[in-house]
């Protein structure tokens, strides 16, 4: 039972929370602009790098470094939207999504240049320390991932639900033309969506960078796990992104824990394909995701 | 994006399908990345039409001018010019062009590949500073290519530079090198590997083209376990953790052979992959902790090694980790796993680190000046260059610096490593000529590159007795 809680549930909820952070970033941009942002992995690793530089290089207190890194990446996200995505307004969303693939390539090259080939660390305070949770020893970093992610997602949810800007963003996501008619600066909402999404990606990068072995530029590919998460949760559902992230994180962790013992014949690293298996099953049963909006087809 | 809600929903439906396709593609890409059994690939059509040197010339190039070291008339063909090298040290010399196919930017071993290539450049700079070889300077910079540790890219870049090179000063990675071996065989191109696969010791595998230096991963793990048995405690259970294929697989085969020879239990081969592929090393950590092994032999990347060591110790594992050569990077001392690495990880190396006292070490330090390289890759590159230098010198001495002449010089070639390794002879029985010595290092913040030697010249009874008759994996 101890192992199930420590290495299964808490570890899974920890990594699942990080997936959820990334997925919420996808959803916010998708709801605001109808575009899937494939640049999220590069924004994530740049966030880890910014945290590393500010915390271990500049010597800022870790929380300050994290917030500053989120601000820097928010600015990068907003600038990206203004330069690369705004000219795509009115075009097919698929074309705009392809532009984000280009942005991913450019930012990935930048990340490689900045990070180089060496292992870097984010200077987090948790390291390999353990904590007692209901009598079970769990990794502090797993608890940190859960708490930090849920606080961040909760803050974004509150912002969207209670603030005037959040209301404007929701109005934009529901109908851009009506929002425009009501005086909402739709372009500003696009920019804000990219800023929030990039900040969340930076936070996720910091959490991924807490790995015992640090992080490298290539670690960015971990963010691709958020793709099945947004499909499972529903492309336009923040709630779905959170539940799906946690579901996939726990499923991965339990597979890592038990598959080598009870289904060794399946081979090594089966947990890697678990998110995609879940995605395929959900696509078959609910093509719009667990919490996504059902499509209305014109017939 | 100015559209009505129905249109937008329709587009979202399209997007969902698009993302689903992208997800499926990512699944396929992940599966390919985990399965490390890529077939050798020589399907490249990206062949640059470079300036191919006149073949069959027989002028001895600059050697005819009576430069020091000139060996009289020397036959030359591809990759050797009468014209001096770009930025030649000796403007009166001709030029021998060697190719470098390495991992220099985004591949998993770029952290090693960059200093490794720098070490090779320093080695050949020293050769040129001393007058070159037979009236020729050696250039490895012009035909250096980044192949990203990708067999397909390796093959494409090889075809690109092949018309202009005499040999390969470096071909990094076992599988990438295997991908170009048939072409190298057809082209009579020899090369120095940046890999310690056991197969390089056997002509069945490398066509006699690969001039390896030091032990193999297979013998490395056996030497390490022999050392642990004598200096820590005789292990009753041993476990191998590594990447599938010729790196981790070769190391794991050595672990299994050691267990069989010592009546120890082989806990198995835990296959893992880089963090970028599997997300984390949690699966490997779980199996290490649950294995009850006394010693775990790692054959992964540096970040992954730190994750496994740190994570396992945090989960209560109390055994010892032995890491293959590529598992160490000085930056790991600053990682969250730094303390765990110092406590429970020992690094196996084929030769002594930067602080060694051999003539080779002195030359390496002299080439560096006051700077330290990022990691031991610089030394690897330096050492791996000795056999190619010896082959070129032998070919000049034979009066045949053609590709065929260089290849013919390999059989029976004697290589002097200036003390950093015992002298080696190529072409004999692998069981007789295989290097079976290692250096055991421990992480040490005070060490020049984050490690200090615990013991040098380590040999072991199991490794010495191992019948080396075929590639281990």
Commentary on this structure:
The complex is a heterodimer of chains A (299) and B (473). Chain A has helices at residues 2-33, 40-57, 62-85, 93-115, 140-162, 164-174, 176-181, 186-208, 226-233, 238-262, 274-285, and strands at 130-133, 136-139. Chain A has 299 residues and is mainly alpha-helical. Chain A has one domain (2-222). Chain A has a two-stranded antiparallel sheet with strand order 1-2. In chain A, α6 packs across α8 (186-208). The radius of gyration of chain A is 19 Å and the shape is globular. Chain B has 2 domains: 61-215 and 356-433, Rossmann fold; 217-349 and 436-465, 3-Layer(aba) Sandwich (Rossmann fold), CATH 3.40.50.2300. Chain B has helices spanning 5-34, 110-129, 151-161, 174-187, 203-206, 217-231, 248-261, 275-278, 282-291, 302-314, 338-344, 359-368, 377-384, 386-397, 403-410, 430-433, 461-465, and strands at 75-76, 80-81, 94-102, 136-146, 167-172, 191-194, 237-242, 265-271, 295-299, 320-323, 345-349, 400-401, 414-415, 424-425, 438-443, 451-458. In chain B, β9 (295-299), α10 and β10 (320-323) form a beta-alpha-beta unit. The longest helix of chain B has 30 residues, at 5-34. Chain B is globular, with a radius of gyration of 24 Å. The termini of chain B are far apart. Residues 1-13 and 23-71 of chain B have low confidence and may be disordered. The interface between A and B is large, with 78 and 72 residues.
């Amino acid at each position: 039972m101890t192992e199930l809680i420590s290495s299964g549930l808490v570890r899974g909820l920890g990594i699942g929370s990080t997936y959820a952070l990334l997925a919420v970033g996808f959803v916010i941009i998708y709801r605001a602009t109808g575009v899937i942002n494939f640049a999220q992995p590069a924004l994530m690793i740049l966030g880890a790098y910014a945290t590393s530089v500010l915390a271990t290089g500049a010597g800022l207190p870790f929380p300050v470094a994290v917030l500053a890194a989120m601000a820097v990446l928010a600015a990068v996200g907003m600038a990206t939207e203004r330069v690369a995505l705004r000219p795509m307004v009115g075009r097919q969303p698929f074309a705009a999504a392809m532009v984000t693939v280009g942005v991913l390539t450019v930012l990935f090259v930048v990340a490689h240049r900045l990070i180089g080939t060496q292992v870097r660390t984010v200077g987090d305070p948790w390291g390999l320390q353990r904590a007692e949770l209901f009598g079970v020893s769990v990794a502090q970093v797993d608890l940190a991932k859960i708490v930090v992610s849920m606080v961040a997602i909760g803050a974004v949810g509150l912002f969207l639900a209670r603030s005037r800007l959040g209301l404007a963003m929701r109005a934009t996501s529901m109908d851009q033309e009506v929002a425009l008619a009501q005086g909402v600066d739709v372009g500003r909402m696009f920019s804000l969506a990219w800023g929030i999404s990039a900040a969340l990606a930076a936070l996720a990068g910091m959490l991924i960078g807490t790995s015992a072995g640090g992080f490298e530029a290539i670690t960015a590919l971990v963010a691709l796990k958020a793709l099945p998460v947004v499909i499972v949760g529903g492309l336009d559902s923040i709630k779905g992104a959170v539940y799906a992230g946690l579901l996939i994180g726990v499923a991965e962790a339990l597979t890592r824990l038990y598959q080598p013992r009870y289904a060794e014949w399946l081979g090594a690293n089966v947990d890697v394909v678990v998110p995609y298996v879940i995605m395929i099953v959900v696509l078959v049963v609910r093509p719009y995701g667990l919490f996504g909006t059902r499509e209305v087809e014109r017939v | 994006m100015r559209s009505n809600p129905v249109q937008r929903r329709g587009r979202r439906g399209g997007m969902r399908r698009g993302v689903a396709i992208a997800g499926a593609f990512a699944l396929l890409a992940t599966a390919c990345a985990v399965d490390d059994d890529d077939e050798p690939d020589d399907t490249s059509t990206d062949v640059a039409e470079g300036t191919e040197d006149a073949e069959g010339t027989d002028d001895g190039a600059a050697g005819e001018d009576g430069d020091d070291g000139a060996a009289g008339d020397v036959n030359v063909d591809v990759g050797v010019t009468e014209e001096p090298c770009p930025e030649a040290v000796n403007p009166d010399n001709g030029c021998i062009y060697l190719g470098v196919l390495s991992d220099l930017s985004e591949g998993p071993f770029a952290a090693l590949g960059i200093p490794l290539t720098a070490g090779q450049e320093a080695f050949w700079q020293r050769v040129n500073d001393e007058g070159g070889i037979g009236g020729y300077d050696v250039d490895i910079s012009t035909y250096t290519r980044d192949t990203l540790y990708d067999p397909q890219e390796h093959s494409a870049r090889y075809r690109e530079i092949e018309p202009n090179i005499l040999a390969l000063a470096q071909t990094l990675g076992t599988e990438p090198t295997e991908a170009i071996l048939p072409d190298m065989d057809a082209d009579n191109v020899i090369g120095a590997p940046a890999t310690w696969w056991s197969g390089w010791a056997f002509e069945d595998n490398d066509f006699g083209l690969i001039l390896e230096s030091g032990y193999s991963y297979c013998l490395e793990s056996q030497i390490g376990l022999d050392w642990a048995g004598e200096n820590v405690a005789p292990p009753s259970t041993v476990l191998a953790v590594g990447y599938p294929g010729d790196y981790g697989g070769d190391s794991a085969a050595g672990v299994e052979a050691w267990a069989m020879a010592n009546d120890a239990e082989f806990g198995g081969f835990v296959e893992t992959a880089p963090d970028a592929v599997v997300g984390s090393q949690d699966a490997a950590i779980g199996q290490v902790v649950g294995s009850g092994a006394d010693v775990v032999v790692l054959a992964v990347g540096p970040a992954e090694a730190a994750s496994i060591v740190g994570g396992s110790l945090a989960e209560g594992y109390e055994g010892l980790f032995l890491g293959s050569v590529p598992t160490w990077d000085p930056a790991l001392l600053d990682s969250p796993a730094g303390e765990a690495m110092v406590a429970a990880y020992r690094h196996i190396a084929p030769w002594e680190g930067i602080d060694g006292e051999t003539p080779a070490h002195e030359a390496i330090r002299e080439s560096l000046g006051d700077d330290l390289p990022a990691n031991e890759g610089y030394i690897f590159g330096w050492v791996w260059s000795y056999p190619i230098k010896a082959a070129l010198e032998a070919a000049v001495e034979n009066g045949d610096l053609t590709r065929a002449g260089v290849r013919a010089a390999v059989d029976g070639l004697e290589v002097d490593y200036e003390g950093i390794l015992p002298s080696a002879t190529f072409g004999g029985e692998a069981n007789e000529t295989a290097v079976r010595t290692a250096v055991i290092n421990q992480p040490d913040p005070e060490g020049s590159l984050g490690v200090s030697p615990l013991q040098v010249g380590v040999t072991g009874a199991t490794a010495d007795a191992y019948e080396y008759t075929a590639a281990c994996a």
